[in-house]
Design brief:
Layout (H helix, E strand, L loop, with lengths): L3 E7 L3 H12 L7 E7 L15 E7 L6 H11 L4 E4 L5 E2 L3 H12 L3 E10 L2 E5 L5 E2 L1 H6 L11 E3 H8 L12 H12 L2 E13 L9 H14 L7 H17 L3 H14 L4 H10 L5 H10 L5
Parallel strand pairs: 1-2, 1-4, 2-3, 6-10
Antiparallel strand pairs: 4-9, 5-10, 6-7, 6-9, 8-10
Organism: Paractinoplanes rishiriensis
Protein name: Glycosyltransferase 2-like domain-containing protein
Pfam families: Glycos_transf_2
Length: 301
């Protein structure tokens, strides 16, 4: 039976962190579950350490690049489980999630499993479940698939260490590191998806604020340079270009926003991000208003 390690990076969210830990430890998986709490640029709470043969918690400190990617990698390298799962410190694994994903891995022979999410934003809650059993690289290039949140990832440790590799720490601000990780994993082999919500994901207004738009634009341009395969998927290229256009518009960079909006429409004239970016660039609507409205519908830019 496969032992599981859950890696939870954390920074200054003590109450939500405890909920995340408890939700992992409460999974009905019959083998051992190890939780690695990786503190990133914050003081570790050693009281969370818990010894046990079947359920344990270890507190670590990120000793790699500051940020989410380095914290995840610190946990991956310290993990003892046959399977490694991710969970953000403000999310929770739902009951039965782990057993469903382990069964999917065993029946399919896949290296990487995902599942749907239950999104909670302010007072609203809704499920986002991908209507696919298998996820390939071309499909991920066309669509980011918000349903495939990092807190749903469960990966064979051997595949991580000998094939897929660690989370990339070079991405500006660690933004879209989860998407790049999915693309790289799908390059390695198709992913298996469980068609039910397995993780509660909390979205916060603080997840998107003006000071981050420049970093978002830089990270997405880095992603396009790293994955030339986007050139073969015009709709996917247009989607990312539209995100860049929106990020530039949100910073007040009208000329850059127009450039990227044109590039977006050249690939897909139906891509809504181009039109949203132009609306922001023309000061017809504020970027945070658009983001908030999309979040209420379980979507994002």
């Amino acid at each position: 039976m496969n032992a599981v390690t859950a890696v939870i990076p954390t920074r200054d969210r003590p109450e939500l962190l405890r909920r995340a830990i408890d939700a992992v430890l409460a999974q009905d998986h019959p083998a051992a579950i190890e939780v690695l709490v990786v503190y990133d640029r914050s003081e570790p709470d050693e009281s969370l350490n818990r010894a046990g043969d079947q359920r344990s918690v270890r507190v670590l400190v990120n000793d790699r690049s500051p940020g989410l990617a380095g914290a995840r990698n610190t946990g991956i390298l310290a993990a003892s489980g046959d399977l490694i799962g991710f969970c953000d410190d403000d999310d929770e694994w739902l009951p039965g999630r782990l057993s469903a994903q382990v069964a999917a891995l065993e029946s399919s022979g896949a290296h990487f499993a995902c599942c749907g999410i239950r999104v909670r934003y302010e007072q609203d809650e809704f499920d986002r479940v991908l209507d696919l059993d298998t996820v390939t690289l071309p499909a991920l290039l066309r669509d980011r698939m918000t349903e495939l949140h990092p807190s749903t990832f469960l990966i064979r440790a051997a595949a991580l260490r000998d094939g897929i590799g660690l989370v990339d720490e070079e991405i500006p601000g660690s933004y879209a590191e989860d998407y790049e990780f999915l693309l790289r994993a799908a390059r390695h082999a198709p992913l298996v998806n469980v068609r039910e919500p397995g993780t509660l994901v909390r979205w916060h207004r603080s997840s998107y604020f003006a000071q981050r738009w420049q970093m978002i634009s830089e990270a997405l341009r880095w992603l396009l340079d790293r994955y030339p395969e986007f050139a073969g998927e015009p709709a996917g290229l247009a989607r990312v270009a539209g995100q860049i256009a929106f990020a530039e518009a949100a910073q007040g960079h009208s000329r850059a926003a127009v450039h990227w909006a044109r590039r977006t429409l050249a690939g897909n004239r139906r891509e809504p991000r181009a039109y949203l970016a132009m609306a922001v660039a023309c000061r017809l609507v504020r970027p945070d208003t658009i983001v908030r409205t999309l979040h209420k519908r379980g979507r994002g830019i």
